[in-house]
Amino acid sequence: MHGKFVWYELMTTDTKAAESFYKKVVGWSARDAGMPGIEYTLFSIGDHQVAGVMTMPDGALEMNVPPAWLGYVAVDDVDASAARLTAEGGTVHREPNDIPGVGRFAIVADPHGAAFALFKGTGEPPPQLDQMASGNVGWHELMAGDLDTAFNFYSKLFGWTKDQAMDMGDMGVYQLFAHGGQAIGGMMTKPKEVPSPFWLYYFNVEALDAAIDRAKSEGGQIVNGPMEVPGGAWIVQCTDPQGALFALVAPKR
């Protein structure tokens, strides 16, 4: 499991509105996690839990931290991985901590500031959905501070390997990366107009145009696309009504 994305978490200003939005746009079901002392909602497809949503922590808005999605990457040892991340130039924003009955985690960032989380679950991991199953997260994309530096960092931390590389002309190289021999995402040096590096997560839907219509009707905004990508899939990048950036991917328009 080391180096595999295993969870996704939305921190937002209005959890009920976010719950309604993603249920309609992506097709997730939602239920309260029943965690004592915290309101945490679980998003699922069938019996498979995919993501969670919670209210942004106190002080985040004052620090100009916008609503955002955070990806959790499985590691063999959270404390050891956090220490290695620091040694490789990353930052630990929240020191390793336990979630009773769930696992251990840390909130971190790569050397250029793109945030993600380290995670090791308690007990056996649940069965995994197919990567491209409807409602799952089909792609993980890093707008990096610098592609070469970022790839070396993540490769050392997670063992990711280079897959296909695509020359995007003036935009530079888009480097696919693989976990266990399967391409799970891509990264590229961010365009100059993008203020800071970030991770973007692509949620699988069955048909893109219908999902775009649902997103617009529920108060979302389209920021890039729709466009066809190599392999024949279609993507669009959006913001939800609270301003969190996400993307959709589908095999057809």
Automatic annotation (TrEMBL):
Q: Which residues form the VOC domain?
A: 4-121, 136-251
Q: Which Pfam families match?
A: Glyoxalase
Question: Any stretches that span the bilayer, and where are they?
Answer: none
Residue spans making up a coiled coil are none
The alphabetized UniProt keywords are:
Lyase
Q: Which GO terms describe its molecular function?
A: lyase activity
PANTHER family, alphabetically?
GB|AAF24581.1, GLYOXALASE-RELATED
Q: What is the protein name stated in its UniProt record?
A: Enzyme related to lactoylglutathione lyase
Q: Which organism is it from?
A: Sinorhizobium kostiense
